[in-house]
Amino acid sequence: MLKNKKILLGISGSIAAYKSILLTRELKKLGAEVKVILTDSALDFVTPTTLSTLSENPVYSSFFKNKENGEWVNHVHLGKWADLFIIAPLSANTLSKLVSGNCDNLLIATYLSADCKVMVAPAMDLDMYSHFTTQQNLDTLRTKHIDVLDAGEGSLASGLVGKGRMAEPEEIIAAATAYFSTKYKVSGKRVIVTAGPTYEAIDPVRFIGNHSSGKMGYRIADELAGRGAIVTLVSGPSSQVSQANVETLRVVSAKDMLDATVSRFDDCDLIIMAAAVADYTPKTVATKKMKKESTEINVIELTPTVDILKYLGSNKKHQKLVGFALETDNELANAKSKLMRKNLDMLVLNSLNDKGAGFGTDTNKVTFVFHESIKEFSLKNKEDVAVDIANEVESFF
């Protein structure tokens, strides 16, 4: 769920800051991109070197990178960058500044610029935490739709025992995961994504195939799983690897892909057919390897494979169906025809005439084709194309 999510971690002055080192490490292990902001007081408890090493990003603590040269940290950019802003630990001092807007450090300036979800994990001693001023400030944050992760009970730095311990890293991660799982409309939806080529056997050794790497389908599956969808990836032969929370069904031929897809079809909500499925398969498959002869092989008879996309379009009920088309001429006209003939809700059009698009690349240039409109996109990394596709199918639900 946290894979590729952009998480900004604010650390204020508290002995509990050591937990944020563990939190940074765990967020990275789960695939999140993490950037860290420290207050001046936090520097008394943790070092930028440790957090920079774990986050694999620079750590920010001042408005300036180099004050003499006028190099400054763009707090607005940091605030807009994040998908989620976690402030942990949240000291009483930083809490009061969040409420009042007293913008005297980089963390508060970034908070005031952020338009993403904000979570805070307060940490302070027993009497400070229970004080009516603290509780009033926390209630104010809650009324502003900021998630307050309640402090835990236990031994405190003062030697007292009671409420005031910062939430544990695993509790914060659970809260972040829950947020992302409910943020998206596809969360909880059952999705089938197909990816890669199919191999149609000529004999036990040789096959008819294509140059599809499967990258696009795998990135779509990862993105939807990251939004909380229950994803089944039906993959032809590919070296790509999907996320741990994506169920992958490995297949070889078009018939295999049809059978695997149909087996999950009735229960699914969305099907995205990104695979490059063979249109033809050898009519007869040799049971033994065909020996090389001096004479030419003039004919390998081919027979059409079952059109999986057409079959699904003809049999869908509540399901939404997205197809792909790779064209070389009359691209838009052919795409609109395919959209109609196969009863699709959306078609993703690629053109081999566009540099950087098509098979075997890390980029793609697509156009979304609908019955009443089209949306064109510039050349992007396939991860970003997957985001565009996921954003679009959100509107189906």
**Can you give the mean pLDDT?**
91
End-to-end gap: 19 Å
CATH superfamily of the largest domain: CoaB-like
Strand arrangement in the largest pleated sheet: 15-14-11-16-19-20-22-23
Number of helices: 13
Task: Tell me what you see in this structure.
It is a single chain. By secondary structure, the chain is of the alpha/beta class. The chain has two domains: 6-183, Flavin prenyltransferase-like (Rossmann fold), CATH 3.40.50; 190-394, Rossmann fold. Helices cover 34% and strands 25% of the residues. It has 13 helices and 24 strands. It has helices at residues 17-29, 48-55, 75-81, 92-100, 106-113, 126-130, 132-143, 169-183, 215-226, 254-265, 308-315, 331-341, 382-394; strands at 6-11, 33-38, 59-60, 64-66, 71-72, 84-90, 117-122, 147-148, 152-155, 161-165, 190-195, 200-201, 207-208, 230-235, 247-250, 270-273, 280-282, 302-304, 320-327, 346-351, 363-364, 366-369, 374-376, 380-381. The protein has an eight-stranded mixed β-sheet, with helices on both faces. Helix 1 (17-29) packs across helix 8 (169-183) and helix 9 (215-226) packs across helix 13. The two termini are 19 Å apart. The mean pLDDT is 91.
